[in-house]
Amino acid sequence: MVIEIFVAKRTVPLTGKGTQLVEMGSGDPHYSDQPFEVHLPDDVVRDRVENVDSDEKTNGVIRLTDLRKSYGEVRAVRGVDVTIASGQTVAFLGPNGAGKTTTIDMMLGLVRPDSGNVSLFGLPPSDAVRAGAVGGMLQTGSLIEYLSVRELIKMVGSLYPHPLDLEEVLDLTGTGDIADRKTTKLSGGQTQRVRFAIALIADPDLLVLDEPTVALDVEGRRDFWNAMQAVTARGKTVIFATHYLEEADAYADRIILMARGQIVADGPPSEIKAKVGGRTIRASIPSVHRETLESIPGVVSASQHGEEIVLVCSDTASSDGALRDLLHRFPEARNIDVRGAGLEEAFLKLTSEDDVDSDAMDESR
């Protein structure tokens, strides 16, 4: 039998399977067969985080191993394996229902995986979060009511051993001008900025952000990422999920693309886009028929909008040949633009393919 341990007035469960002594609201204990984890004292945990060796920082301070989570018949996450090195900025992308948020919730210790393991700085998520090594900014949850922004951020900072200076956080997150405003009087964009400040106040080594710019306007999104770049310049590791593909393309060192609860692509944005391989030629040509454009060797499809024509080619070699042929036939062509496939094209293609039967994969494990 294993019983709960209490350290510094904190409940400390032990990792594994077995019988666990749980405190009831009345103070009477009862036994539970739920899985349990060991929590170390705060000073031990923070020392472990601050002294991660150089090999571990390079090879991965965040490790997700064969993570799986189901909700009834819905298998939200199906065998996710990810290793993230210190200092990386990683974007999780995928359509609705791909498993991004569930994976992030398991990473933060908010949801227990059905199987698999999460390790942050060599620790369980709950220990790393409690030590202030992890800051989270989630889609859901409201701010504590009737406190001012300053009071709320200061209160959250007091829960951690080594918080950042309050004024520094207010300045970095753009919340200084609303610091004395009550949390009940904030707009959606202002609320997002306060959530960012709450995630940052602990001075975490890892920031996990779920749709961080969802309620921000264009200027607010730009300001947010300017602030985030200042954070990453300090060597912080950042993991974020977003539906704004241009944000992932512009700010992520690495993109992890999920579909149907699995990882379908993982690499730098340029590598993800290269998986599609197509190229597009745009030009302005007066008085041309689409059938003529479609007859050009190397052209997969052609479209017309007034004088503007768009030719889609399968790869670089095809587009080079098609462009030479186009200029030979139409020397009057102008405003010529040749581009590789964008992240949106790669996203649509890679998340819509069913090359691997997920049910068969699960049964084969």
Topology record:
Blueprint: E1 5-7, E2 10-12, E3 20-23, E4 29-32, H1 42-50, H2 54-59, E5 62-71, E6 74-84, E7 89-93, H3 100-107, E8 115-120, H4 125-130, E9 134-137, H5 149-157, H6 166-172, H7 188-200, E10 206-210, H8 218-232, E11 237-241, H9 245-251, E12 254-259, E13 262-267, H10 269-274, E14 279-284, H11 290-294, E15 299-305, E16 308-313, H12 316-329, E17 334-340, H13 343-352, H14 358-364
Parallel strand pairs: 7-11, 7-12, 9-10, 10-11
Antiparallel strand pairs: 1-2, 3-4, 5-6, 5-8, 12-13, 14-16, 14-17, 15-16
Please give a structural write-up.
By secondary structure, the protein is α/β, with parallel strands linked by helices. The chain folds into three domains: 5-39, no CATH class; 54-273, 3-Layer(aba) Sandwich (Rossmann fold); 277-350, Alpha-Beta Plaits (2-Layer Sandwich), CATH 3.30.70. The chain has helices at residues 42-50, 54-59, 100-107, 125-130, 149-157, 166-172, 188-200, 218-232, 245-251, 269-274, 290-294, 316-329, 343-352, 358-364, and strands at residues 5-7, 10-12, 20-23, 29-32, 62-71, 74-84, 89-93, 115-120, 134-137, 206-210, 237-241, 254-259, 262-267, 279-284, 299-305, 308-313, 334-340. A six-stranded mixed sheet has the order 9-10-11-7-12-13, with helices on both faces. The longest helix is centred in the middle third of the chain and has 15 residues, at 218-232. The two termini are 32 Å apart. Residues 1-40 and 355-365 have low confidence and may be disordered.
